[in-house]
Amino acid sequence: MQTGLTPTQTLSLIALMNKLVPGDDLSPAAGDSGGAEYVNMLLTAFDYDPPHIWAGGPFSGRHGGAASFENWLELGPWEILAWKSRIEDLNNQYHAGLDSLGPELAEISDEFRELVFTHACEALYGDPVYGGNREMSGWLAIDYRGDSQPSGYSDQEVSAP
Amino acid sequence: MMHGAVDGVDADAIIIGSGPGGAAVAHALTQAGWSVILLEKGQNHLLSLQAPFAPLGHFSNDEIKFTQRHFLGPDPLLEPRTFRRSSEDGDHLLTGEVNNLPSTLGGGGVHADGKLSRFREIDFQLRSELGPVEGADIADWPLSYADLEPYYAEAEKLVGVAGEETNPFAAWRSGPFPMPPGADMFGAQMSSAAAERAGLHPYRAPTGVNSVEYQGRPACNNCGFCAFYGCPIEAKGDPVSMLRAALATGRCQIIPLAYATEITTDPAKNRATGVRYLDLSVAPNTQGEAPVRELRAHHLVLAGGAFETPRLLLRNELGNSSGRVGRHLMFHFQTLVVGAFRERLWGASRGRSVTHLHDDHIDGDQASRAAAQAAGLPWIRGGIVEHGSSTGPVNEALLQGAGAHHPLAMRNSELRERLWVFTMQGEDLSQQTNRVDLDPTVRDAWGLPAGRVTYQPHQHELVTSNHVAPILEGVLRDAGAVWTAASTSPPVGDHAGTSPLGLAPATYHIMGTAKMGFDPLNSVVDPTGRLWDLPNVIIADSSVFPTSAGYGPTLTLVALATRAARLLTGNPLAQSQPT
User: Fold this and answer.
1) Across chain B, what does the average pLDDT equal?
2) Other beta carbons less than 10 A from residue A156's beta carbon
3) Are B171 and B578 in contact (CB under 8 A)?
4) What 8-state DSSP symbol labels residue B70?
5) How many structural domains compose chain B?
6) What is the rounded distance in angstroms from the CA atom of residue A82 to the CA atom of residue A80?
7) Which of chain A's residues have a Cβ under 8 Å away from the Cβ of B282?
């Protein structure tokens, strides 16, 4: 099973993600914010033990408590089978899709475009522990705090922000 | 080994499923001195199974894990489900995720935002009070609200429900809520004020989320990751409070990753003797199989939910002398009305997802009666309307779509931070043709037939939704929405195929597939929840509901499960009185 992206494929993916989820003066593009790292972490999830599928908990450490998101959670034996199958399929889709991209990034199937767009969104707006959202640039652009535990919000911040 | 082993069984009772129903039964039986083994198909992310049963700390504010990566299961690659609207769609229209309530220790209670309403008196006597509807099976329940009230009160205390008695349509109560309500969401205050101006009666939702420290669990700190998430600080009480109490008795053994596949019986199939299950905690053998384990007990409790319970019975060809197992499937027909506002509402990032409800569309008014009459229906009933908003930025980004507009659209956040949503959980009339059965061709990872949903709404649901949606849009416009839109789940009409929620019902409220009744000819369980065909088997989930009402099913199923367990142990609660 071929896992992970080559440097050439990585550059192609960054360009494609930047096209699908572009940036502007105030927001980063998905590829520039770690989108390819997000995908690569998923495609190589089983290079780690536990696999990098489900980040740990309960707290990131950004708002108090002990940082524990990097304590990745164990999968059950059958969950491992399912995720290995899913990731093998993703690897195949990424290698085939990126290797067939034309210079204008135009040679792309609807299915592959949807896959890359979904991962671009997950990368840009998911927790940085998954490899994207570099320095929380995706969250900062939309004024989103992300996780807030264990400090949470006061009743005043909920009712009269 | 539990103490029941001394008389040839492994426990007094085996419970299949650890969601709110199974947890309630485990609690009630162990409190009565019984030994129980609780089998859960999914993983344990909830609590240590060793004293003092501390939280495992797996839950977190993590949109990727909870909404994109099947963390709470079931994984559709392992457990596909199928959907079709009718036989005209062939064997199935969709394969994959269909009503995927969590398959994890704690079941649906883990991901719910915990709106825990009681049904009303009329909900138990719908046929007597309102009469039949052509094409539907309108039935009275074989028990009354008064019969269930003491169990509602106990369920509220067990889970820990925060609320207040300001809903003018609510049924009578024998006592106050265990806790006062939590903080009002900013947007809910705005939508509630507009609802009041429209003559409606919004109130603070009864919610199984702590507003103060309760039974050793902390007050909610409003993190905003409520609906669809496990609570990192255990402010949500369902069902961890019941499971922890059951474990603390020393009479409850929980076995995660145990997939019950076979109900064993005596030769005459008059009594269940136990369960065979697949042990999913070990890797498959070289043939790709899981080892089979067997347990024996005096009693069996089915609490896998209204999808998995009928699937298990149908696979085993048990309990179905009435031919009703799997039939009468009900969801709640959801009417979703959204409004976009200029100001930031903070609905998606702070608070309990939903803090306010209104009930006015359940019994309706002169206008709803006129709408029913115009459609040739004797009556229509809606459901609770939830005032809320809940989606994270990943899911908003997916809705916003690709292209140059994306960064500005995400900063403006019309589909998240500036969106307010009314969700009506409309009463879904029971129809024999709506059902869960076994898909003829799709199988799960263990070779067992996948469950299949066949469902389409009755005209009643469509008429009700069409009547209520414009009212709700008017409320949002009065509140200041710059645009509004209405849709339903399941979607109907020419554009159903483009619904972002999919063709199958998106609600997690599922009921009716092993309904309770007085007559074994047309019901699956008796008024105490026992299978007519195997009286030492109890069903303790929302399968038994004869009607769906317009309220979330969880508190009612916990109350029913508690009642069934207490009747089984000869320890029923006394009748209660209004205070």
Assistant:
1) 96
2) 10
3) no
4) -
5) 2
6) 5
7) 77
- Half-sphere exposure in the Cβ direction for B254 (13 Å, CA): 34
Q: What is the DSSP string of A57-113?
A: -S--BBTBS---TTSPPPPPHHHHHHHHHHHHHHHHHHHHHHHT--TTS----HHHH
Domain assignment present for B77? no
Give the separation between CA B300 and CA B502, rounded to whole angstroms.
36
The CATH number that applies at residue B347 is: 3.30.410
Beta-carbon separation of A58 and B57 below 8 A: yes
In a domain, A46, yes or no: yes
Count of CB atoms situated within 10 Å of the CB of B239: 31
Q: Which of B59, B290, B404 sits opposite A22 (nearest CB)?
A: B404
Q: What is the pLDDT of residues B59-97, one digit of tens each?
A: 999 999 999 999 999 999 999 999 999 999 999 999 999
Q: Quote the number of domains for chain A.
A: 1
Q: CA-to-CA distance for B447 and B80, rounded, in angstroms?
A: 11
Tokens 């492994």 sit on residue: B10
* Nearest residue to B511 via CA among B15, B18, B110, B21: B21
B375-431 tens-digit pLDDT: 999 999 999 999 998 789 999 999 999 999 999 999 999 999 999 999 999 999 999
Is the Cα torsion angle B364, B369, B374, B379 positive or negative in sign? positive
Interface mutation vs chain B, best among A84, A88, A159, most B CBs within 10 Å: A159
| Residue ranges with strand state E in B270-332 | 272-279, 292-302, 330-331
Identify the domain containing residue B106 by its residue range.
1-55+97-160+237-331+509-573
Looking at residue B3, its pLDDT comes to 46
Instruction: Kindly report the backbone phi and psi dihedral angles of residue B155, in degrees, each rounded to the nearest multiple of 5, phi listed first.
Output: -60, -40
Instruction: Let me know whether B276 and B264 are in one domain.
Output: yes
CA distance A7 to chain B (A): 25
Are B415 and B400 a contacting pair, CB within 8 Å?
A: yes
Sign of CA dihedral B526, B531, B534, B538: negative
- Kindly provide the ipTM of the predicted complex, given to two decimals: 0.98
Task: Give Cβ neighbours of residue B422 (< 8 Å, ≥ 6 apart).
Answer: B191, B335, B336, B337, B338, B385, B386, B387, B472, B475, B476
pTM of the model: 0.97
* Each residue's pLDDT tens digit, B205-238: 999 999 999 999 999 999 999 999 999 999 999 8
Rounded CA gap, B497 and B494, in Å? 8
Dist. CA A62–CA B122, nearest whole Å: 50
Mark whether B44 and B112 lie in a shared domain.
yes
d(CA B127, CA B473): 31
CA distance A109 to A100: 10
Q: Rounded CA gap, B185 and B26, in Å?
A: 35
- Put simply, whether B445 touches A (Cβ < 8 Å) is yes
Q: For residues B512 and A40, give the distance between their C-alpha atoms in angstroms, rounded to a whole number.
A: 45
Instruction: Give the N- to C-terminal CA distance of chain B in Å, as an integer.
Output: 45
Residue of A nearest to B182 (CA): A155
B290 touches chain A (CB under 8 A): yes
Question: Per the domain annotation, does A158 fall within a domain?
Answer: no
B569 vs A: CB within 8 A: no
Strand order in the sheet with B419-426: B203-204, B354-358, B385-388, B419-426, B333-340, B483-489
Does A160 contact chain B (CB < 8 Å)? yes
Q: CB within 8 A of B297, min separation 6: which ones?
A: B4, B9, B10, B11, B12, B13, B14, B37, B273, B274, B275
Nearest alpha-carbon partner for B416 in B516, B337, B347, B366:
B347
The answer as to whether A1 is a domain residue is no
